[in-house]
């Protein structure tokens, strides 16, 4: 593995080759020991155990929903009742075609449930859809942000906590129609989070983003939600992103294209165990970085972790 570092759009440097494990860990640590080069100011660190459960339970409830049912053609979504508090981020996990986007659209008010109700009507909602297109917009990124933000454009908080960290200023002079998939995704996520809203709904915000951009995005989401006492739902396929950004998880089960069942929000540990038990996949942790690594199916460690019901985090008794 070669580590490539530098300044996007300006220059890139390719390191000497390393073994797969060493190369990945060097990238995560941001330091190449054999070349004595530090290319990032901080390490990317993984959680080996989840945050303390329920630390936001003292906060008021922002959104509460009853049991929901929604049918679209031959597909039916069933949602268990739940609630989300101010300052809380809820990750949504599940296979494709299981109803995750349908649930987000119900919360956004785009779809109405056939049975049951949620209570987001009094809230200001900002929604980033799964699929993005710039075909119907002509203009630069800067013009788009000025149009959407109005008087809030130039806010020091948005500048320091959102636009600068996500590298949006570097795209300001670019036409939206000429952006790559990753650049368009960054703009869409930043635009969603920059709106004056109570509830942020982001459908697959890490799609097309590279590793560093994904973890920058998770930090930005957490700061916005925690500092401004907002709430967010994030549909995600990258487990490490869900681990970094979420306080709770909603896990979808069922048969793709036929029936989806959404759980009530649960702790990160319970949610990861529920999701990975469906896949029959367990993870161990790299001793140097805490990076999750998939266990070989049927290996001693795989069998042991399944026997104690710990699929992702280190067992509670070892914390």
Map the helices and strands:
Layout: E1 4-7, E2 11-14, H1 20-29, E3 31-32, E4 37-38, E5 61-65, E6 68-72, E7 75-79, E8 82-85, E9 88-93, H2 100-108, E10 125-128, H3 141-149, H4 156-163, H5 181-194, E11 199-203, H6 211-228, E12 231-235, H7 239-245, E13 248-255, E14 259-262, E15 266-267, H8 268-279, E16 283-285, E17 292-294, H9 300-308
Parallel strand pairs: 7-14, 9-12, 9-13, 10-11, 11-12
Antiparallel strand pairs: 1-2, 3-4, 5-8, 6-7, 13-14, 13-15, 16-17
What does this structure look like?
This protein is an alpha/beta fold. The chain folds into two domains: 1-43, no CATH class; 61-277, P-loop containing nucleotide triphosphate hydrolases (Rossmann fold, 3-Layer(aba) Sandwich). Helices cover 30% and strands 22% of the residues. Strands 6, 7, 9, 10, 11, 12, 13, 14 and 15 form a nine-stranded mixed sheet that branches. It has a two-stranded antiparallel sheet with strand order 1-2. A two-stranded antiparallel ribbon has the order 3-4. The mean pLDDT is 92.
What does this entry show, briefly?
The protein has 319 residues and is an alpha/beta fold. It is built from 9 helices and 17 strands. The chain is 30% helix and 22% strand.
What is the name of the CATH class of the largest domain? Alpha Beta
State the share of residues found in helices, binned by percent.
25-40%
Structural class: alpha/beta
Biggest beta sheet summary: 9 strands, mixed
Number of H/I helices: 9
Helix and strand pattern: EEHEEEEEEEHEHHHEHEHEEEHEEH
Instruction: Give start-end ranges of low-pLDDT stretches.
Output: none
**End-to-end span in angstroms?**
32 Å
Q: How many distinct folded domains?
A: 2
CATH architecture of the largest domain: 3-Layer(aba) Sandwich
The share of residues in extended strands comes to 15-25%
Number of DSSP strand runs: 17
Overall pLDDT metric: 92
User: What form results from the Cα inertia axes?
Assistant: globular
Fourth-tier CATH superfamily name of the largest domain:
P-loop containing nucleotide triphosphate hydrolases
Cα-atom Rg, whole angstroms? 21 Å
């Amino acid at each position: 593995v070669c580590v490539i570092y530098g300044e996007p759009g300006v220059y890139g440097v390719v390191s000497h080759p390393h073994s797969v494990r060493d190369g990945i860990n060097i990238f995560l640590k941001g330091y190449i020991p054999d070349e004595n080069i530090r290319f990032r100011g901080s390490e990317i660190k993984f959680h080996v155990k989840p945050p303390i459960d329920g630390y936001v339970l003292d906060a008021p409830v922002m959104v509460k929903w009853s049991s929901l049912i929604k049918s679209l053609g031959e597909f039916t979504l069933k949602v268990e009742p739940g609630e989300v508090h101010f300052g809380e981020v809820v990750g949504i996990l599940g296979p494709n075609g299981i109803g995750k986007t349908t649930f987000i659209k119900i919360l956004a008010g785009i779809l109405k449930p056939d049975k049951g109700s949620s209570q987001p009507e009094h809230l200001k909602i900002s929604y980033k859809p799964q699929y993005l297109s710039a075909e119907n917009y002509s203009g630069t990124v800067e013009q788009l942000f000025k149009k959407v933000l109005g008087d809030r454009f130039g806010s020091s908080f948005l500048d320091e906590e959102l636009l600068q960290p996500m590298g949006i200023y570097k795209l300001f002079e670019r036409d939206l129609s000429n952006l790559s998939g990753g650049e368009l995704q960054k703009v869409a996520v930043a635009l969603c989070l920059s709106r004056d809203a109570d509830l942020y709904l982001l459908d697959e915000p890490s799609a097309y983003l590279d590793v560093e951009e994904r973890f920058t995005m998770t930090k930005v989401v957490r700061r916005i939600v925690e500092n401004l006492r907002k709430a967010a739902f994030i549909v995600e396929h990258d487990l490490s992103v869900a681990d970094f950004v979420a306080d709770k998880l909603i896990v979808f089960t069922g048969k793709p294209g036929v029936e989806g069942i959404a759980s009530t929000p649960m702790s990160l540990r319970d949610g990861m165990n529920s999701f990975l038990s469906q896949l029959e996949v367990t993870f161990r942790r790299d001793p140097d970085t805490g990076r999750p690594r998939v266990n070989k199916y049927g290996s001693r460690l795989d069998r042991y972790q399944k026997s104690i019901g710990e699929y992702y985090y280190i067992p509670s008794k070892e914390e």
